[in-house]
Amino acid sequence: MDWGLKNRLSKIIQPKTGKTVMLAVDHGYFLGPTKGLEDAQKTIKPLLPYADSLMLTRGILRNCVDAASRVPVVLRVSGGNSVLDEDLSNEALTVSIEDAMRLNAAAVTMSIYVGSPHEHQTLANLGRLVDEAQRYGMPVLAVTAVGKNMARDSRYLSLCCRIAAELGAHFVKTYFCENFRALVKSTPIPVVVAGGKKTSEKEALTLAYNSIKEGAVGVDMGRNIFQSDSPVGMIKAVRAIVHDGTQLEKAFSIYEKEKKAR
Ligand code: 5RP
Fold first, then answer.
1. Is 47 helix (H, G, I), strand (E, B) or coil?
2. In angstroms, what is the span from residue 145 Cα to ligand 1's centroid?
């Protein structure tokens, strides 16, 4: 791995703890104005001090994030569908590597759809993106998107993560599952856990806690933070789990305290 690539990656995965808290706000790339992100600028701003990186599209970056912000950007460079499409797997690369560089991205990210109608296309896109990104020392985060008929089990997600690593991704984002430790073991790149749909704050913190316990390098959480009744409380609690090894109950009390203070 060359110096530039390692340097960019170290902005995301913090060298001090070897862990990362990513804030995912890229939902609009196929969902449009997602609940909690209607006014993306307003939602994102108070969370920036607590995020190790921001995962988003170039449109939201340019229009809703202060260019003086210090937060590293993980730029989504795949898309091409809306939630109205039957088959979400038909994704293309939508941003050039030059534009990712121009936007000072710390990494680029795209989804792969293993087992879906456009599996081949998205996997070939990943190989191509790795080729292009590596030319500029840019890390690639592969996201294992799950098609409608796929089970989010260890066997399937291990397959997805391993393929992402084999094709050259530098880190991978996937869902937590049973036997997660085995998935991490068979994936020779860092594994970040996706937050998933909004659940209770306790459940979301339990997910973060178990992910770290079972070997994830961090979480990339969106709705369970920005749709919470205390987004700052949630991201502070997640940080405590990920970076400080805080126990679940104590982390929950961090969330509750912040919620009461507002
Ligand atoms: C979609 C993504 C999103 O960034 C991510 O899944 C959204 O985060 P959350 O599920 O925590 O709201 O990669 O493919």
1. helix
2. 9
- The span from the CA of 222 to the CA of 181, in Å, is 23
Whether 215 is in a domain gets the answer no
Range of the domain at 16: 3-191
Catalytic residue at 173? yes
Q: Whose CA is nearest to atom 1 of ligand 1?
A: 27
Task: Decide whether any atom of ligand 1 lies within 6 Å of the 201 Cβ.
Answer: no
Residue 148 confidence (pLDDT): 73
Task: Report yes or no on whether pTM surpasses 0.85.
Answer: yes
Asked, for residue 75, whether it belongs to a domain, the answer is: yes
pLDDT at 86: 87
Q: How far is the CA of 25 from the centre of ligand 1 (A)?
A: 8
212 falls within a domain: no
pLDDT of 262? 77
Ranges of residues in the chain whose predicted pLDDT is under 50: none
* Closest among 197, 196, 174, 198 to 186, alpha carbons compared: 174
Q: How many domains does the chain have?
A: 1
Q: Is residue 119 part of a domain?
A: yes
| Domain of residue 19, CATH code | 3.20.20.70
Distance of alpha carbon 251 from alpha carbon 139, whole angstroms: 31
Pocket test for ligand 1, best of 173, 220, 223 (most atoms within 8 A of CB): 220
Q: Is the CB of 195 under 6 A from ligand 1?
A: yes
* Contact status, residue 214 vs residue 181, Cβ threshold 8 Å: yes
> Active site residue: 173, 198, 213, 250, which one?
173
